[in-house]
Amino acid sequence: MPTLPDTELRTDAAPAAEEQMAASGSSPSIHTSPARPNTVHPVSFVSVGKSFASRGKKATNARPVLRDINLEVVPGEVLAILGTSGCGKSTLLRITAGLDTASVGEVLIDGTPVSGIDARCAFAFQEPRLLPWRSLADNVALGLPAGTPKQAGRERVAELLELVGLSEFAGHRPREISGGMAQRTSLARALARNPAVLLLDEPFGALDALTRLKMQDLLLEVHAAAPTTVLLVTHDVDEALQLADRVILLGREDDSDSDSGATIKQIVTVPGERPRNRASAELATLRDELLAGLGIEPHGASASNSTGADLGSGALASMPSR
Ligand SMILES: Nc1ncnc2c1ncn2[C@@H]1O[C@H](COP(=O)(O)OP(=O)(O)O)[C@@H](O)[C@H]1O
Ligand SMILES: [Mg+2]
């Protein structure tokens, strides 16, 4: 598998394949077909389970992380995935993208099983993972499908930078921009592929609260302009309620049973057109339900008295995001 140039500054120990999926539509290791514009696909999870071999033990002691995940995500749906740290959210996204394989069951995109890194998906992560020596425009261009003609590519990049409000910064380098702008660039790069399925793994988790709210609005605009099926992992209940058509809560059915994997404990259909009123009583009730599902009971003051964003993020502030 080809690796990115050594000069890349890695902010974490993410596997190289992930970075290629985020950053390069033209990597020879990724099966690429020119992306079909504006295709939106359903995603089906059929009895998906995943176990990892416990370190230092025999494979027979495999530790289950996910089990029995069954779900139909409809084309164009925004599905938020909530769950405590380590419950398998990222693993589920990685299986969807073909970056990892299910131990049992399968994921189908538009009826076709995912097998190997899937060019129909694009990934964006908590860290923007931009190439520091390249301009923002060149970073976005890395997401274009292989074989995109030069002029068409330039036009597409300009269009995407405009969509994320960065046209004036096209020639800037990542070090010259803020964290929010870097994350917008990362989103534009993921969209450059015209993905049928957009996988977002806590994409706004590292941003300050205000920037995060702006990014949530931006994601809604982007989704309205270029509909795609979105799987969004977040640890922020309010973010889930603001952005998603449905929210699933992953967790073990019996919290004390560490030998069983996490499954879908709760599915919440979020009412109302987006953008939603963050302070609505209806959302406050759902917020309480989801927080309770995460093992956090609201204290004293009722949730409906709070300003939405604060309760969700504040209440979860002590939860590690990854
Ligand atoms: N490649 C791997 N090998 C072994 N264990 C892993 C691997 N990837 C993830 N895990 C374990 O699986 C569990 C779920 O991880 P992850 O999907 O990253 O959780 P989340 O994203 O919900 O925080 C964690 O306990 C993690 O340590
Ligand atoms: Mg994770």
UniProtKB/TrEMBL annotation:
What GO molecular function annotation could you give as one example from this UniProt entry? ATP binding
- Its top-level enzyme class, in one word, is hydrolase
Identify the InterPro entries for this entry.
AAA+_ATPase, ABC_transporter-like_ATP-bd, ABC_transporter_ATP-bind, P-loop_NTPase
The annotated region (Disordered) lies at 299-322
| The enzyme's E.C. designation | 3.6.3.-
Q: Which Pfam families match?
A: ABC_tran (PF00005)
Q: Where is the ABC transporter domain?
A: 43-277
Keyword Calcium assigned: no
For this UniProt record, give its keywords in alphabetical order, as a comma-separated list.
ATP-binding, Hydrolase, Nucleotide-binding, Transport
Task: List, alphabetically, the CDD domains matched.
Answer: ABC_NrtD_SsuB_transporters (cd03293)
Annotated protein name in UniProt: Sulfonate transport system ATP-binding protein
